[in-house]
Amino acid sequence: MKGIQFDAFGAAHEVARMVDFPEPEPPDTGEVLVEVEAFPINPVDLLTIAGSYAVRPPLPAVPGSEALGRVSAVGEGVTHVAAGDRVLMMSRENWVQRKTIKASEAIRIAVDADPLQLAMLKINPPTAYLMLTRYRDLAAGDWVIQNAANSGVGSYLISLAKACGVHTVNIVRRTDVSASLEEQGADVVLVDGPDLAQRVRAVVGDGRMPLAVDAVAGDATGRLAECLSEGGVVVNYGLLSGMPCAVDAHQIVFRGITLTGFWLVKFLTTMPTEERASLYAELADRIASGELNVDVESVYAIEDIASALEHAARAKRGGKILVAPNGQPSR
What we know:
Helices cover about 30% and strands about 25% of the residues.
C-alpha cells in the first residue's frame, strides 16, 4: 500500500515522499476500513510538515489532516456506516491509500456531489461557517470584512455570507484575483494597504460592520480593527505574516474592539457528536446544491506527491490542489 511519509521537518516538497506501507489490519470492534478517494493539500498540512504548526508529530510521520473515502469493511458494533458508504475521515495521518479508523471518526456523507468538493469539507467550510456565526449575531445587510479573501476559507465565507444576506469586504494582496472573487459573490474587493480603513468607510458608509476575519496577523490585524464598527470583534485564525497580531490600544480601550482566536480543533472536540454530524450534513448539502464550491486547479496521483506539494505551496494559484491516491474518484 502506498502512502506519504516525512522523516524531517522542512519544505513539504523536499521532505515528504511516497513509501510502501503494510496493508491495514481488518477492522476490529468499533472500527471501519476506508479506501481513500481524495485528499486536499491544506495549509495546515504544509505547516505540519514544516514543523510550524501547533502540534509537531514525532518523526517519521504520515501527514494528512483531511480525506474522503469509501468504507470497505466494518467491525462489530458499527451501525451508522456500512460497506460502500462514502465518509468524511475525521482522523489524521490520512495520506494513504487505505486506512482503518475508529468508527466515530467516520462521518457518513449521504449527498450526491462532486467528491473533490466533498474531500475539502472537513476544515475550511466549518471554519468559515463557525467564524461567521459564533462571534456576532449578524443581520441581513450587515457587513463583514476579511483578509486573505482568495483563500479556501475566504471563498467559503463569501458564499455563506451571501446566502444569509450579509455583505463582504474582501482584502487581498494582488489585483488579479478580484474578478474571480466578484464572480463568487464578493461585494467589495480591495487591495490591502495603510489607508485601508478610509477606503472601506468610503464604500460601507454608515453600514454596520461588527465582524472581521483575519488570516494574516501582524499589522494586518490592526488594519481590520480600524474598519470595524464600535464594539466589533476581530477573529484571527491564521498567521500568514509570521508576526503576532498587532492592534492599537486605542481600538481596544476607546472603541471596544475585541480580538479573539479561532481553532477548529477546539470547536470540534467540544461539540456533541450529534451537533458535529449536523454541522457537516448541512455543509455537505450546501456543497451538493452548488452553494459552496471552490476552484480545483489540479489533481495529482499519489506517485507525484512532490510535484503536488510544490504546486500547493505556490503563492499564485487559481484553485486548490488535491491528490487521488487510488485513481480519479467518481460520483
